[in-house]
Design goal:
Blueprint (H helix, E strand, L loop, with lengths): L2 E10 L4 H11 L4 E8 L5 E10 L1 H12 L4 E7 L4 E12 H5 L3 H8 L3 E5 L3 E8 L1 H11 L6 E4 L3 E4 L5 H16 L1
Antiparallel strand pairs: 1-3, 1-4, 2-3, 5-7, 5-8, 5-9, 6-7
Length: about 180
């Protein structure tokens, strides 16, 4: 049975690595639901956060294939109960819609969103939350004429006390010392 998994992939930042990683999913006919990349807390290391629906067995194989890439340090497979995650959404609505009857302003308050910019032509609203929350707000605001809408990919941190990569690197160092 397919379920949602989040892969946290740590790597050096080299040109072409994103293409190599996405090719692993393409070859296995897996659709990437969300992909976000950024620097990690460790200098020189980047983090890819990828959301995919798959079976546990299949996603574990994907993680092992990704780890074979020369620039990849480690890939972790995580479930929803192992992470804390958010997305950010931006909504552009006509300022006139904001001023007419305050329905949009009420939605902004109700959903814990915030107004980022107001011009005579448009207003930009920001909402952070899970995909379902940002989508629900879009559907409610679209009745008043959303001009543009965009949502980021998932960003996630683990619920563990330490960064998984730190633990992995410490273990690798201990293993290396024990061999010598």
């Amino acid at each position: 049975m397919k379920e949602e998994f989040t892969l946290s992939i740590f790597s050096e930042n080299h040109v072409g690595l994103l293409n190599q990683i996405t090719n692993v999913f393409t070859r296995r006919n897996l659709n990437i639901e969300s992909l976000t990349t950024s620097e990690s807390a460790i200098a020189g290391i980047h983090k890819f956060t990828i959301v995919v629906f798959s079976t546990r067995e299949e996603i574990e194989k994907v993680a092992k294939q990704i780890e074979k890439k020369i620039d990849v340090i480690k890939a972790f497979v995580l479930t929803a109960d192992e992470i804390i995650h958010q997305e950010i959404a931006l909504y552009k609505v006509p300022t006139k819609a904001l001023l007419d009857g305050n329905q949009i302003e009420g939605l902004v308050r109700q959903y814990g969103a915030r107004i980022l910019e107001v011009t005579p032509e448009y207003t930009v609203i920001e909402k952070t939350g899970h995909k379902a929350e940002t989508q629900e707000l879009f559907e409610k605001m679209d009745k008043y004429g959303v001009v543009q809408f965009t949502r980021s990919g998932r960003i996630a941190i683990t619920k563990s006390k330490a960064e998984l990569l730190d633990n992995y690197l410490r273990k690798m160092e201990l293993d290396r010392q024990n061999v010598n």
